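Collaborator request, handled under Task 6.
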Amino acid sequence: MLKSKTFVRKTRQGAIRKEVREHYLRDDIYCGAQICKVCDVSGARLNSSASTLLIVDTNVVLNQIDLLENPAIDDVVVLSVVLQEVKNKNIGIHNRLRALCGNSSRKFFVFSNEHHRDTYVKEMAGETPNDRNDRAIRVATQWYQNHLGNAVRVLLLTNDRENKRKALEEGILADTVESYVKSLGQPELLDLIVQPPSEDVRMEDVEDLRPSKRKVIYTEHKPMSEITSGLLRGIYHQGKLRVNRYNPFEAYVGSESIGDEIIIYGRVNMNRAFDGDVVAVEILPQDQWQDGTSIAIANEEDEEEDVHLPPSSADDAPRATNLVQGSAGVSSSVPSRPSGRVVGIIKRNWHSYCGSVEPMPMPAGSGGVAHALFVSKDRRIPKIRIQTRQLGNLLDKRIVVAVDKWDILSRYPSGHYVRTIGVIGDRDTESEVVLLENDVEFKPFSSQVLACVPPLPWSVSTEHLANPIRQDLRLLRVFSVDPPGCKDIDDALHCTALPSGNFEVGVHIADVTDFVHSGTPLDDEAAKRGTSVYLVERRIDMLPKPLTEDICSLRADVERLAFSVIWEMTPQAEIISTKYTKSVIRSCAALSYVEAQARMDDSRLADPLTTDLRNMNALAKIMRQRRIDRGALTLASAEVKFQIDTETHDPLDIGMYQIREANQMVEEFMLAANISVAKKILQHFSLCSLLRRHPTPTKEMLEPLIRTASAVGLQLDVTSSKALADSLDHAVGNDPYFNKLIRILATRCMSQAVYFCSGELSPPEFYHYGLAAPLYTHFTSPIRRYADVIVHRLLAASLGIYRLPDLLQDKAQLTSVADNLNYRHRNAQMASRASVELHTLIYFRNRPTDTEARIVKIRLNGFIVFVPKFGIEGPVHLSKEGEWLVDEQQQRVRKSDNSVHYGVLQTVKIHMEVVEPQPNRPKLQLTLIEDTDTTKI
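Structure tokens returned to the collaborator:
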């Protein structure tokens, strides 16, 4: 049956357009119940032995997704009208619901009620879309009842009183979520239920049980209409709130409307905003401004202090020009950046948080429900109030908690228990916390995904060799150079001297797209994960291991499929020609960086492979220098390397990662391949190429670097990447580590490089600041990055090998893919850093150590130091004995009796020791070992 749906929509240009869509109704859509005697049950998901079949409404899905994800809840029908409404309201929950429905181990079934002849409902005059959808849910539930008869109980779950009332009047079985869960006889499931506001127990009821003492702590958030008007008039400013990792009472909002960061000081001014929320901010009067460089590092014991006013308003201590007296913190200079307060939340960033609980007093008549404060491992997150019936089992556990709301009368947000991870302090538990906190997908690959992978053993077939699109390069002397122990080898090289005196140089990349086909479950999973994640002790793969470590990996002495970029180069590394081809290669050696370097350095070796390495290295040095001359930055990062025990996986040693010429050689040719491919795909797909850009840093972003350099007598020219590169080259001192430290600080002033769709920006915006390259992309790591998979498809389509998938021809969809890739890449980096911090704690737990550190930032009551030997950064609190004077402009601090002076980039001695000032929150404490001979900077 064919029905027409007519509606009007507004185009991007503002025009109103009438549209008519055909809506097909069918009678061959099956119910999904194995027990059904009428429908085809070959694809049925709902258990034949189930006594109850659940149908959930939209609000139940939106509010109770944590409960639905619990294995105790199964045999659930998800109506298509519910699925669509959830998608329109919350894409994150929609994705979680889709994952449930796609999980073969769960009994969730999607029923297309909107296309079934007997369950489709027309809109009624005067009926709201919400009422129409509720009616559609009731009609579908009634159909299931009639369709299945007495074979099973069909129950509608809804917390909507009106919807439940109408259902009961229509003879439909309906119940609330809480009532149904209680009937299951599993009290622990009640902890998962999100309580509606009317059922909430306020914090004041728990703390002192005297409702008369309630007071308003926070101001109401402005309605969106007022926020929108205020943003248009310049009264409010929009941006993402970022909480200081060292001080949870200090946050920043980057505002494009004023071109600067707005400082938010204190929980009251944050006004219930979480780290990552997009907020509307109102600028405070200038006499309440607080300069970010003047805010003290928060001590652990300050955790419970709810700071209401900035120190400049709360402290009347004497002031001196350019100086701050006392560790309490008094700013004397006129702040350079505005302070503000949050007036509204534009977009929440609430998600699940990992941590532990501390019990609270239990109000009378609580019926076994204990009230507890959840303490997140992330200090930037405020404590969260939860109710639980299993407190005794949670006190020594890491658990997951979700936030439900935050009332203006409550000091803390309210949330609910989701699940237990494991015992506090267990390495596997804490590693899982790292992954959960950074939203890294680490569950095993589903059977549908694994079914897309060719069975092992796999080898190159005669069909591959006979395919005209693929060139046979097995006779080339191809080799790979990677970190030691690398199994997922996705790039290899060759360098052959030509009779002309030139060189043929090739970069060969694993041909992942020959196995990962667009639109398959394998491709969908890789797109969702976005990237492999590298932790200290393990790797979370983007693709299943048979692909990453065998079928695609360019291992030595086996034939493998590749996508090759081959240049002819002069001895001066000038590119004469470029060729792109699918290929078959056979690597002759899988070298580590150390092995490749040793070959190049050993003058006794003159074999062909070593000669190739030396020739490539000579070309790479020329290419690298040419990039630097063009303005590319040679930056540095504090990469940490652990030696891990192969049995216990505990860290045995820790130190800075060493970069060798071999590393730089490989990097240079990977950069060249990425640039060449970027040019090729953009030439053919000017509006839908996936590229990578690095935005030019603003003057404000570079200000901390300029100020630090100035404090040690260096003048940095930041007018261009070339000028900054030259300045960094000249930033040398007597200390060999000085230049690297300056480069590390420069790296931290940069914005992140990001993926983007070429059709969304103009060519000048494609520029990659760090590489000084007008065009760049990622092509060389498709085993580890989904961006490279997309680029492989673009390159293949540009060569006429395959047709470009529809998804990649749509600017809007490609932009959405790029946004997810940026999100996943950022999370992977954060997870890697958190893993390093975790293993640093494990390593130093029983190894208190004295060492040297460098001061990188001066604060009121201490400074941030960097420890070169271990690649660790952290705060050092100044002793509270005696007073300290801080010169912010010169980035210096001294004792008031002039006995000790310290300055930025100065070497200091510190003691490193793991302490636990708060239960279940261990930290590496850095303590200054004062040197009374330090009278000069």
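The cover message to the collaborator said: "DSSP finds 25 helices and 38 strands in the chain. Residues 62 and 93 are 7 Å apart (CA to CA). Please let us know whether this matches your experimental observations."
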